[in-house]
Amino acid sequence: MEMWETAGYHPGLGETEVQWREQTFEQGGERRRVRVPVPDEKGLQRLVEVVRKNRQTDLASLSVSEVVHRIDQTVERLLDRNHPLRRRMEDWLPVVTGLAPDVIRTGLTASMKTFRKPQLLRWLAEDFGNPAMLDSFQPRVNGGFTRAISPHLLVHIWSGNVPGIPLWSLVSGLLVRSAQIGKVASAEPLMAGWFAQALEEVDPKLARCLAVVGWQGGDESRERLLFQEAEVVSAYGSNETLEAIQSRIPVTTRFLPHGHRFGLALVGKEALNPARVADVLRKAARDVAIYDQQGCYSPHCFYVEKGGVLSPRQFARMLAHELDIMQIRYPRRTLSPREIGEWNRWNQQAEWRALEGEEAEWIGGDGRFWSVAYEETGDASLLPTCLNRAVLVSAVNDLEEVAGRIAPFRAYLQTAGIAASSRRMFQLADRLAETGITRICALGHMTVPSSGWHHDGRPVLKDLVRLVDVEPSAEVAAEPHNPYSE
Amino acid sequence: MGEKEVLQGLKDMMKAVEADEAAFQNLALQLFQYQYRHNPPYRRFCQSRGRTPRIVKDWWEIPAVPMRAFKEATLSCNDPAEAEAVFMTSGTTRPGKRGKHVHPTLDIYNRSMLRNFRQRFMGARDVLSMGILFPRPETLPHSSLAHYLSLAVREFGGEHSSYLVDGEEVHFSRLLHFLREAERSGEPCALLGASFHFVHVMDFLEQEGLSFRLPEGSRILDTGGLKGQSRHVDPDVFYAGLAARFGVPRHRCINMYGLTELSTQFYDDGNETVPSKKSGPYWIRTRVIDPVSGEDVPYGETGVLVHYDLANVHSVLAVMTEDWGKAVEGGFILMGRAEGAEARGCSLAAEEFLRSSKG
Amino acid sequence: MDLKSQRVLVTGGSRGIGAAIARAFARQGAAVAVNYRENREAAEATVRSCRQFGGDALPVQADVTDEQEVRRMSEHIFAEWGALDVVINNAFRPYPFDPEGRKPFSRLEWKDYRDQLEGVLTGVYHVTQSVLPQMQAKKSGSIVNIVTDLIARPTVPYHEYTTAKSAVVGFTRNLAAEMGAYGIRINCVAPGLVYPTDSSRHTKESIREAIADQTPLRRIATPEDVTGPVLFLASDYSRFMTGQILYVDGGLVMS
């Protein structure tokens, strides 16, 4: 029997008041169906009014610490592997996303963990210094007061199959106490709705400040309507998609585009000895295999320094074996014909380059679910890669050269994983920071950003709010008007 | 086995009415040995794939070169500087690099084309007046299609044959003249050219409110995709349009499937229904493979097409395409390319980067 | 995995156990390079019998203890086939297995040991060095070193011979530990007394019967008995085994 699941969350709009779009997912011979609620324009307008009104009555009055407490309770449920919603996630997401069950399970736990109370408090402190600023005007060190005002409506356009993304968005929106409407990605339409359901178990009133629905991406009339109503629009997608979205957003609405990006890794010669390299390789391969490089933080290239006990070429060959091992625990998703096309074209280019001479090598081929290209001439034409576990290992004389090599990708860089000594790590951080890299972490952590990270270099929460200042002059000028003024 | 013997074997084979399995097998293995010896990049490819002449025992084990490789390497058994022709791909997928197919001589290419064209397009006729919807070879010296069409005109074109494209644009008054003359003469004629030019022509005729009834026995040959060259037209609508605008029944509207990387073309037997079945002469064979494992898919299932073209004497006889298709009795159904992978996550992929840095 | 189209080098492949191994691979559809030192005719006979199975076979001359010759041999094979997937280190220096005529320890000189070590370990070393880079470059390969069950149970103490073979076991295990990271496996097959071979010619009937009597499977090995475990270790069926010794002696050694 075919299994069904209903996506979305639409308070105030009944089952029959939306249309239902059906999606079929197939993976490893299993076939599942998801139905996604698609409101028409009138329905969308209703949702806007409902979540906005609910926010006004039930969310705006909560203190930030009350909201934190409720999110903490929500993720506590979702961290419990026996909770029915968590079970549904572990059961459905492997089929929907194609990601290996182990990737889903560990990925869910890792991302939920970043939404527990201590992590949320740290995140708030990170962005606001004094989170009470979200509740009331707070004194500033240099005089005056500042308060952070939440957007009355925050709209999300999600894309892709990495299940953590909608969670990040929804939690950020809750922390700043905004009403939210999210459009699910067809590649993973379920996660956002499940989160709303979990929230409903904790606090139904709070949950009803969110709506999660779908429509055909690029639907101009729906999007114009919604963006007209929104105060902030946050969207994920390719630059083409984002430009299309931007063209529909009024100039007075704040737009937070999250374009496609990629990561890379640097391995210093000090890490390239037989005793240390095993650990580095294991972590490097994990960062590649988890999410099949679909994350904007996933590494495409490993810059490996010459001069260690092991050569960059040996590193490439050993990385190939580690990737091979990953296939057993974290099998790669079944690729679509288009993805296979892109995979083949990239690999054919890499293979034929390697046939030209000794400076390049390519390990891959039929029946392998990964591929490693190696080069030592500084040729970057294989970057970014075709994804789905294809990496370039590039030999460098000195890791300091990397900054120059990645300059052409400035607008598309995100995370750099580094395996090098402390002193060099900080030196490299300085250089990389100049190139467009916005996050530096250890190998093995590339796909698990720490809580409160500055996604693409921005303070995520602060970008959502409007900061209102009471200047010292207002304070001073008010004094004479006080009845007790003398 | 030298070049001469292989060439002679091939010419003999092309003279035959039908060739048997053993003849194809023998010639393929001989040609493979020759190409392995004289084509250094191909030899390295075979060695790295572990498929050398000593190892390969059957024609389908001959390593197939991906089309991409024609962009990365010069796949020629002869000095490209002395080539009679170098055909290049249009390079729509990746900017900058174009695939090259070096022909030291066009002798075999021409034989292959003419014999096949006569049989698959000319019907019982020796001569047809041809209207060509494509530039002359002088305009596009590296286009295999320009050469192909000029060969058709030279060998089979009647005295009223005419090129209906100037530069790269259709010359509409010359087109109308050709069509009216054909109608008036009552002699069957042929229109041949790029599919996208036919779309432009049909758009023009619709705009002008014109349609023709070309004499009984007239034929149309279109080839190549529409990608990037004209608006997209559903194949069924396309052939219905040809039939309506020119009065040529759909079973005489032939679609040719050719690749710059090959020396032999595939044809269908008209497009009464689409998609049509494509097939080639006995010196070309096609396998349908699973592009992940490289193995044949079960008969009738969808996979990527790999062609083994014995007329590709001077380059590589086995070419792996980027076209999807499925085998049917006596041929295959072409399903086209799978391009523009949809993003699954938030990571930037190679081809998206190229698109965005181009535009 | 099937061994079809796998490219295999068998050192000392012209006669005896080596020839049996070469034929066994050929029967599975593998391409086999039959290495020999001097006996070209024997090697060509083995090659001919291999080709009967339809696959490729080549005779390749090299004294495996000579680095230059080994390099030339490998390059020749790579030119013909591209690479090697499997290497069977079977060549060894001739040794008369004569329980009654063997030298007792008191009469052994260091040179006797050195000759055997040179004959056995040097060959394994050179051949392995010459094939490993290309195995690493394709991230796959299997090497099988032929030793002897005497390393575990010196029924007859052929000191220098068995010591040299024990060194090959040490070599194998160390290399296996390092090459695992490249997906390359190295194992040993340790046959008991194999008859008939040129080396076991000297072994008297009575000795063979005595060994057979002690063997659970009640006979001594034939060259063909050795081939199964070698094929197994060369193939994907043993893909998670490395650094191991498989004893092929009818159960004489149980470990």
TrEMBL record, chain A:
Coiled coil: none annotated. It comes from Melghirimyces thermohalophilus. It comes from the Bacteria. One of its GO terms (molecular function) is long-chain-fatty-acyl-CoA reductase activity. It catalyses: a long-chain fatty aldehyde + NADP(+) + CoA = a long-chain fatty acyl-CoA + NADPH + H(+). It holds the Pfam family LuxC. One of its GO terms (biological process) is bioluminescence. Its EC number is 1.2.1.50. InterPro entries: Ald_DH/histidinol_DH, CoA_reduct_LuxC. Belongs to the LuxC family. This is Acyl-CoA reductase. Keywords: NADP, Oxidoreductase.
Automatic annotation (TrEMBL), chain B:
Gene3D superfamilies: N-terminal domain of ligase-like. Pfam families: LuxE. Residues 18-352 form the Acyl-protein synthetase LuxE domain. GO terms for biological process: bioluminescence. InterPro entries: ANL_N_sf, LuxE. One of its GO terms (molecular function) is long-chain fatty acid--protein ligase activity. This is Acyl-protein synthetase, LuxE. It comes from Melghirimyces thermohalophilus.
From TrEMBL, chain C:
It holds the Pfam family adh_short_C2. GO terms for molecular function: oxidoreductase activity. The keyword Oxidoreductase applies. The keyword DNA damage does not apply. Keywords: Oxidoreductase. InterPro entries: NAD(P)-bd_dom_sf, SDR, SDR_fam. Belongs to the short-chain dehydrogenases/reductases (SDR) family. This is 3-oxoacyl-[acyl-carrier protein] reductase.
